[in-house]
C-alpha cells in the first residue's frame, strides 16, 4: 500500500468519501525511532580486497550482531546491517570484529535514528493509528 499525498480531509462530496459517506482521513507514514524495540541499527559500508570479497562477506555475516551482508556495486564492496541493543556494542561488533576480518580495508558506519518501512506503515494501520 502506498502513501497518500493528501495533507488533509477531502472536501464534502468530493472523491475519497469513505463507506459512511464521510471523507476518509489520509493515512500518515508511521515513523519510529530506531530504538523503539530496544535495537539500534547501523549500516556499515565496507571496502574489501577484491580477491577476498566472498570470504570476507561470509565471515562478516557470521559475526553476532550482523543481520545482513550485501555484495554491492559502487564505491564499496559490501554493505552490512548491524543491530545491537546498546551503542557501546557497536565497538565490539564493528571495531573489534568486523574491521579485523581478513581482507577488510576500510569501513564507514552510519547509525540509524529512524526507520521508515512499508511494514511499519501497515502495522500502524492494523493498530488503529491511522487518525
TrEMBL record:
* InterPro entries in alphabetical order: Dimeric_a/b-barrel, Tscrpt_reg_AsnC/Lrp_C
Q: Which GO terms describe its biological process?
A: response to amino acid
The UniProt entry, under SUPFAM superfamilies, shows: Dimeric alpha+beta barrel
UniProt xrefs under Pfam families:
AsnC_trans_reg
Instruction: Please give the Gene3D superfamilies that the UniProt record associates with this protein.
Output: 3.30.70.920
GO CC terms, sorted? cytosol
Q: What are the protein's GO molecular function terms?
A: sequence-specific DNA binding
Protein name in the entry: AsnC family transcriptional regulator
Instruction: Name its species.
Output: Ornithinimicrobium humiphilum
Amino acid at each position: 500500500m502506498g502513501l497518500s499525498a493528501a495533507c488533509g480531509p477531502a472536501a464534502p462530496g468530493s472523491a475519497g468519501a469513505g463507506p459512511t459517506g464521510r471523507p476518509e482521513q489520509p493515512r500518515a507514514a508511521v515513523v519510529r525511532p530506531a530504538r523503539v524495540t530496544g535495537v539500534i541499527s547501523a549500516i556499515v559500508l565496507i571496502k574489501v580486497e577484491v580477491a577476498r570479497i566472498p570470504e570476507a562477506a561470509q565471515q562478516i555475516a557470521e559475526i553476532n550482531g550482523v543481520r545482513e551482508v550485501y555484495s554491492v556495486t559502487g564505491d564499496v564492496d559490501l554493505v552490512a546491517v548491524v543491530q545491537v541493543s546498546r551503542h557501546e556494542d557497536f565497538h565490539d561488533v564493528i571495531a573489534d570484529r568486523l574491521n579485523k576480518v581478513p581482507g577488510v580495508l576500510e569501513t564507514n558506519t552510519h547509525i540509524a535514528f529512524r526507520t521508515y518501512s512499508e511494514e511499519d506503515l501497515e502495522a500502524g494501520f492494523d493498530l488503529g493509528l491511522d487518525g
